[in-house]
Design a protein that fits this description.
Layout (H helix, E strand, L loop, with lengths): L6 H4 L9 H12 L22 E6 L5 H13 L4 E6 L14 H17 L4
Parallel strand pairs: 1-2
Amino acid sequence: MTCSSAAFVTRGCRDPMINRQLALERARLYAGARKLADPEISPLYGELSGFPPLLIFIGSEEVLYDDALNLAQKASQAGSDVKLIEWSGLFHVFVYLFPFLPEGAEACQLAGEFLRLHLPKN
């Protein structure tokens, strides 16, 4: 939420969906009066032991690239089951465009498989 990773600079002109200014505006709206580095606002600053299994999709061109890698590493080191999948040439929230992007549709399929694997069976 602090938008302080290098990817905001190195990938800023390659991600058509979000940039540092927009991300900071949204982060401040979300956080309200709280600090952006508050662990309850930004999990990267918190303790991740006991975190549930995580599935992280990351586009190689997105400004949140570094944050996704850092979250995956930190959660894994804390003992969480983490699956990180990088999609070459794609940008922030590419999955949202699943009706138009085959990669988005594939990501939705993989997310369903991940949920079926990790949710309790009824």
